[in-house]
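Input set for joint prediction.
Command: fold jointly, output C-alpha cells.
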Amino acid sequence: MRNGGGASMSIRKLTMRTPDEAEAVFYEAFQHCDSAVMEALWADGDVVCVHPGSGAIIGHAQVARSFTHIFSNAQRPDIQFSVVQRVASDDLAVHLVTEDIATGQGAMARVLATNVYRKYAQGWLMVEHHASVVQAGSQPTTVQ
Amino acid sequence: MRNGGGASMSIRKLTMRTPDEAEAVFYEAFQHCDSAVMEALWADGDVVCVHPGSGAIIGHAQVARSFTHIFSNAQRPDIQFSVVQRVASDDLAVHLVTEDIATGQGAMARVLATNVYRKYAQGWLMVEHHASVVQAGSQPTTVQ
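C-alpha cells >
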C-alpha cells in the first residue's frame, strides 16, 4: 500500500493517506535506520530539515543524505513519539511532536520536533522536520 | 491598520493581511520587547511556542506570559531575520527563518525558527513558533 513505485527495492515515493500515517512511517524509518524509506517519504524540491543544534539542510537529496549519515553512525535508536499539537488545512499539516530517545544506560533525551506534511496527488509527504533538544532543567512548561 | 480593536491601549487582535506581515510584526515586537503587540499577534486557543532549549508552551495566555517574562529580563535585542523557506496553503503558512541575534561584545547567536501562521476572518495570526540555537561548529549546511 505504501509503495508508490514498482518493486520494493525501487521505492520512489510512498503513498501515505494522512499526515498521521506519514508521521508513523517517518518514525518507523528513524527507528529502523531505513534510509530508503526515509528518502521515499520526503517530497521533492526544497524540503528542509533541521537536526538538533544544526543549521538548515535544504533539498531532497541533501536531506536524504543527512539521514543516511545519521543512520550510518547510529545503533537503531529507541524512539517513542507523541503528537502534542496538530494544525492543518486541506493540504498542509503541522505537527509538534515529542520524541523520547533512549540514549543508553537508562538515560533519555527529549526532543521536540515540528513536522510539516503536504498533500500531493499521490498522498501526503514530508516537507519539513525541525528538531530541537529540550535541555534538562529547562523552565517548567505544559509539556513535562 | 493593524489594530483590530479600539484604542491603541486595548489591542485585542492585530489585523495582518499576509503571513509575511505577521512575521514582520512578530520580529518588531521581539525587537522592541513589546508584550502587548506580541500578545495580540497570536491566535487564541492551543497555540504553541518552543523557546530555544525549552519544552513546549501551549495556550495563548501561557505563550504571551513567556514572552513577557523574556522581555522583562532582556535589553532590547538586535535581531535580524531572514526567511529561508516558505510552504503555504490558502489558510496556513509555515516559514523557516534564521534569526541572527547580537549578544553583546560583537558576538552573534544564530537561531532557526519555524513560524506557523493561520488565516482567520480578520487576517493572519501566529499559531506556532519553534526556535532552536544553531550551535557553533555544527555540520556545514546549505544555510551558512
